[in-house]
């Protein structure tokens, strides 16, 4: 695929943490993403009590919306600050515990039990730790993953999906020669080859 100079671009975990620390989080949508409301029916298919996964979740407000609708939400994010801000901004009481299978990882869980957010690299997760999901809301994960890690990311996501799950993916379209990313440009042809 023609992603130009982005092919070898690497954004470190430290850079992401710095974005949160300095408030450089233009990717966060206070009002939620407009495409979420528009395509929510595709994610849910009229089903209730689903398990929905938010890769690289940040403090996405959609997590609270789905939990309020009775769904279980699991997210993963490297920034502990982002996860704590999520609970604080929604006035949600939560508990914090270590994740035995992932050294240094923490899991923040709402007292109601419907929201579980893991603070670690997404690549440390597996279905044996977080289970499988009926749906995925990938609003800014695939486009944030380093281009060289896309295959690894998608391979992991496939292992986390139930057979009849729905995957909502938001990407951005632009000339990759004019912007170094993230968000990275992921051409439709690459999405098709990654997800099959």
From TrEMBL:
Entry binding sites for S-adenosyl-L-methionine: 16-27, 56, 77, 121-122, 139
Main localization of the protein described in the UniProt heading: cytoplasm
Q: Which InterPro entries does the record associate with it?
A: SAM-dependent_MTases_sf, Thiopurine_S-MeTrfase, TPMT
Q: Give the residues annotated as coiled coil.
A: none
Pfam families found in the cross-reference section: TPMT (PF05724)
Q: Which family does it belong to?
A: Belongs to the class I-like SAM-binding methyltransferase superfamily. TPMT family.
Name of the protein described by the UniProt record: thiopurine S-methyltransferase
Q: Which organism is it from?
A: Urocolius indicus (Red-faced mousebird)
**Gene (UniProt):** Tpmt
């Amino acid at each position: 695929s023609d992603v130009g100079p982005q092919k070898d671009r690497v954004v470190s975990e430290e850079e992401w943490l710095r974005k949160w620390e300095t408030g450089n989080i233009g990717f966060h949508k206070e009002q939620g993403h407009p495409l979420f409301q528009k395509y929510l029916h595709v994610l849910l298919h009229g089903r209730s009590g689903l398990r929905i996964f938010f890769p690289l979740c940040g403090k996405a407000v959609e997590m609270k919306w789905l939990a309020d609708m009775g769904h279980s939400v699991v997210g993963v994010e490297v920034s502990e600050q982002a996860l704590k801000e999520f609970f604080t901004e929604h006035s949600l009481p939560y508990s914090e515990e270590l994740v035995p299978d992932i050294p240094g990882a923490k899991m923040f869980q709402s007292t109601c039990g419907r929201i579980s957010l893991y603070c670690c690299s997404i690549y440390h997760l597996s279905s044996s730790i977080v289970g499988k999901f009926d749906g995925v809301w990938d609003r800014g994960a695939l486009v944030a993953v380093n281009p060289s890690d896309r295959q690894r990311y998608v391979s992991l996501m496939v292992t986390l999906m139930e057979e009849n799950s729905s995957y909502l993916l938001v990407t951005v379209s632009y000339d990759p020669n004019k912007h170094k990313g993230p968000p990275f440009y992921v051409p439709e042809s690459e999405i098709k080859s990654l997800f099959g």
